[in-house]
Amino acid sequence: MSLLETLGNVSRGASDKAKNISEANNLKRKILYEEERIVEIFTDIGKKYYKTQNEDTEGLKALCDDIDTRRRRIKKMRFELNGIRGYKICPKCDAEVNERFQFCGRCGARLPDMEDEDFMSLESGDYYTESSNNVFNADSNKNY
Fold first, then answer.
1. Mean pLDDT over all residues of the chain?
2. What's the CA gap between 9 and 12, in Å, rounded?
């Protein structure tokens, strides 16, 4: 291999790493935006309920649907972010597992894949966000 080929390979490698860092930062920013918006929607739900006291259930339902849509976006973006980093998170034990594997080496659980039919389904307690973790503490059985 010539010196020029070696320099070209090093340059491509550095360029790929810079692109991955940029994509990761972009995903982090989008996740943070969605999390902040979920907290705002929770506030809107509280205000709307306080003012209407069960009169406007359709308006509350629309806000809840918006939260679920944002939760699905966050789930997909976190999966993509972990893919950029080269691993998947085990849904049972939260272990970081190399993205090439289909099962967790710690607990044996099947690892998520975006191609799965149920990938976009939501867990009952995963409405938490990084910024709302201390605010909403309804599920004491799960550590966040």
1. 81
2. 5
For residue 94, give Cα distances in angstroms to 61, 84, 88, 126, 143. 31, 18, 9, 13, 10
Question: What single DSSP character describes residue 134?
Answer: T
Burial of residue 73 (number of CB atoms within 10 Å: 0-12, 13-18, 19+)? middle
DSSP 110: B
Per the CB < 8 A criterion, the answer to whether 125 and 139 are in contact is yes
Cα separation, 20 vs 85, whole angstroms: 8
Handedness of CA 25, 26, 28, 33 (dihedral sign): positive
Round to whole Å and give the CA distance between 103 and 110: 4
The number of residues making up the chain comes to: 144
Q: For 54-101, what is each residue's pLDDT tens digit?
A: 677 888 889 999 999 999 999 899 999 999 999 998 888 989 999 999
Helices 3-52 and 57-85 cross at an angle (nearest 10°) of: 160
Q: Which two tokens stand for residue 17?
A: 């790493």
Q: Helices (DSSP H) in the chain: which residue ranges?
A: 3-52, 57-85
